[in-house]
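Researcher: Structure for this, please.
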Amino acid sequence: MTSPAVSSRDLPHPAREEIRLEAVLHALSDPMRLRIVRELASDGDELSCSYFDLPVTKSTSTHHFRVLRESGVVRQVYRGTAKMNGLRRDDLDGLFPGLLDTLVDAAAREAARLGAG
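Model: Predicted structure, token format:
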């Protein structure tokens, strides 16, 4: 339910009970989105979209962040003119215990194995 004080700059997010495993797995199946999640997990705080140096166009980057938000993996909020991104760790760990840590660890191991950082 939307409150009357919600600004037009508020972004829609699924409620915790609306987050579905298949949507989370789909969001994390893309290497760029997995890279974003790895960076958010390692930083542990909110990061702006501009923080990420992705080798894709701005519109493709926007698409990746939207998929992550709409699947319930990240929460995006505006802070001034910056769109900030944070992992929805509490929601994901509550719904799918261990999934996020396992996937982030596996992605880091793969990146190291492939020499991709």
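Researcher: Any notable elements?
Model: The chain has one domain: 16-107. Strands lie at 47-48, 74-79, 82-87.
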